[in-house]
Automatic annotation (TrEMBL):
Homotrimer. The gene is Mmab. Residues 5-174 form the Cobalamin adenosyltransferase-like domain. This is Corrinoid adenosyltransferase MMAB. One of its GO terms (molecular function) is corrinoid adenosyltransferase activity. Residues 1-22 are annotated as: Disordered. GO terms for biological process: cobalamin metabolic process. It comes from Bombycilla garrulus (Bohemian waxwing). Keywords: ATP-binding, Nucleotide-binding, Transferase. InterPro entries: CblAdoTrfase-like, CblAdoTrfase-like_sf, PduO-typ. Converts cob(I)alamin to adenosylcobalamin (adenosylcob(III)alamin), a coenzyme for methylmalonyl-CoA mutase, therefore participates in the final step of the vitamin B12 conversion. Generates adenosylcobalamin (AdoCbl) and directly delivers the cofactor to MUT in a transfer that is stimulated by ATP-binding to MMAB and gated by MMAA.
Length: 190
């Protein structure tokens, strides 16, 4: 018999952190976890569109989704209530941030210079990556207060900050590789 997906433990509006602490579902930890989960879903959608076009960066997007699971583990382990065993399992280092920087540099070198504000556009792959970038910025805004309060590792916020840059560059790269036009901002005439 398969285990049930529902537990009923959250029916009263509370949920548990990895440390076992019960907090209201509106707690900023769960806001950050939800935004991070939504980000992974948006990246999954962008990855599917990009896979249909044969983009080689799809494996990187999958790696990012796996890394977001680690981001979530760190967020779900508030430092104020974590024991050493928790911290060991959910630590988040700087290496993933450095890897994103390498990817950003690699794609940036192949792109034409940016001369105007770009609107989310450039085909389905590119637009989905731009959407992912916007969700990433929201996730970052949810995580920064946790880092500032000493509840999450600063590298988690750095990772999300760099990830939004990566998604922006990747959106431009996808548009270029697909031969799609990036729409630019044009100031409306009064």
């Amino acid at each position: 018999r398969a285990p049930r997906i529902y537990t009923r433990t959250g029916d009263s509006g509370f949920s548990s952190t990895f440390t076992g602490e019960r907090r209201p579902k509106g707690d900023r930890i769960f806001e950050a976890l939800g935004a991070t989960d939504e980000l992974s879903s948006a990246i999954g959608l962008a990855g599917e569109f990009s896979s249909e076009k044969g983009h080689t960066f799809v494996d990187q997007l999958h790696k990012v989704q796996c890394m977001l699971q680690d981001v979530g583990s760190n967020i779900a382990t508030p430092l104020s209530s974590a024991r050493e065993a928790h911290l060991k399992r959910t630590s988040f280092g700087e290496q993933p941030v450095l890897e994103l920087e390498q990817w950003i540099d690699s794609y940036s070198e192949q792109l034409p210079p940016l001369r105007a504000f770009i609107l989310p556009s450039g085909g389905r792959s590119s637009a989905a990556l731009h959407f992912s970038r916007a969700v990433c910025r929201r996730a970052e805004r949810c995580v920064v207060p946790l880092v500032q309060a000493g509840e999450a590792d600063p590298n988690v916020a750095k990772y999300l900050n760099r990830l939004s840059d990566y998604l922006f560059v990747l959106a431009r790269y996808a548009a270029m590789k697909e031969g799609k036009e990036e729409k630019i901002y044009i100031k409306p005439k009064p």
